[in-house]
Amino acid sequence: MNIYGCDFSGAKSPEGKIFIASGCLTGNHFTVEQVFSCEDRLDLYYYIRTSVAPWGMDFPFSIPEYYLEQQYASSWDRFIGGAYSDTRDQFKQRFGQIHSGKSSRDLRVTDIAVDGKSPVSSTPIAMHAMVYGARRLLHNLQGDAAVYPFQPYRKDVSRLYEIYPGHGWRALKLKSSAPDALQGIPFSFRTQVDSGFEISISPEAEAAAVDARGQASLHARDAVMACIQMAYCLRRYGLESSEQHKPEFASEEEWKLRMLEGLVVRMLP
């Protein structure tokens, strides 16, 4: 099975900052085969539409319940359907100045579970800018992709799952900025997560995760981590065959709010 992971950090101004990693899952072995960048958000749209595969996406699929209720009548469909109803500045003004993680009201339950940032925050990282672009991507993929957990599984289109690479790095007890971070993944995975699941990263993929100056690309590395998390979680939790059942990684509260706030798919250490 082919599987993809995407780092969406360059969503506001891509300029080669949107990275995709792809690999092949065979039984309990996953090989990351390729890493490449997108010059434009349309590239990502094209790859998702034409791949017909599972994708681990590094961006929030929804916003906290409080804001969804206030702004979009507690409807994820209405939130996605209104992607072109306001400009980037208007979207930002809906939430005001929010510092990431300072208030539980500004976080989804699933953000708290993975120690993530608020999707509507403006500082210190403008997460709302990423959500603005991501929302339009999901809007344009309607009918051409199935978004977990909001939409039912379809084998004839790509399936999108929300992934937080930062949680994956922490689960493996690795720092993405460390020089040997990619080389350390296979051993750390066996010792920290699952000794029965084998990870390989091709030399080509490792080489592609380096920028033009010879420095490690953190965006590329996060795409690799998203791809690995996606592969393992599909195998471990059977996400494509049991979407109506709460996966082991999710809390009861997360599961209860999944059709409003979404669900970050993650591996348990």
Explained architecture:
The protein is of the alpha/beta class. It has helices at 41-51, 65-72, 76-81, 88-93, 109-113, 127-140, 165-171, 181-192, 203-208, 218-237, 252-256, 258-261, and strands at residues 2-7, 18-26, 29-38, 54-58, 145-147, 158-163, 198-201, 264-265. Strands 1, 2, 3, 4, 5, 6, 7 and 8 form an eight-stranded mixed sheet that branches. A hairpin with a 2-residue loop joins strand 2 and strand 3. It is globular. The two termini are 24 Å apart. The mean pLDDT is 93.
N-to-C CA distance:
24 Å
- Can you summarize the main beta sheet? 8 strands, mixed
Instruction: Specify the structural class.
Output: alpha/beta
Give the CA-based shape. Answer: globular
Q: How much beta, percentage-wise? A: 15-25%
The percent of residues in helical segments reads 25-40%
Got a strand count? 8
Q: Can you write the helix and strand succession as a string?
A: EEEHEHHHHHEEHHEHHHHE
